[in-house]
Prior knowledge:
Helix content is 32%, strand content 29%. By secondary structure, the protein is α+β, with helices and mostly antiparallel strands. The chain is globular, with a radius of gyration of 45 Å.
Amino acid sequence: MKSQYVLVGLLALTVVAAGCLNGEADIEEQPDEDSEVPEDDSDTEEESEQVEETEEETDTTEEETEETSESEDEVRQVEITGFSDNSYDTEEVEVEQGETVEFVYNHDGGQHDLVLEDGDGERVEGTEVLSASGDSDSFTYTFEEEGDYSFFCSVGSHRAQGMEGSITVS
Ligand SMILES: [Cu+2]
């Protein structure tokens, strides 16, 4: 049993001795503490990332403004279709005094337009002459005064063939 204690004691001595040797070696290899690099401000990197994010957001805001411009209120749409047999699908339109109406002409054959005429026979508004089926054109008019207006097609003798209708403002 004694010999075991001696062995343990010897082992402990050698470990301590080795530790001392290593300690001396470490002291020699220690680097200079004066050579610390001063800290940079790391804010500049974060700022450049934020600029990239705002550039991506501008694309979506453009799409949103296009949609909101359509939201004009209090404009009634009246759709009138013209056919190849020189006729409209509408003969009469009734309007309240002061009402704003958007007339939408939908083309479905032949060559036609839609013209608005006041009670004195004067042209007030009108669409382009359309000749391609499926095309449409429109105009908007506010009827400030009571009275009788007309709409008709100005192409050839289409009006005389019956391509006209009445608009009553009351
Ligand atoms: Cu016509």
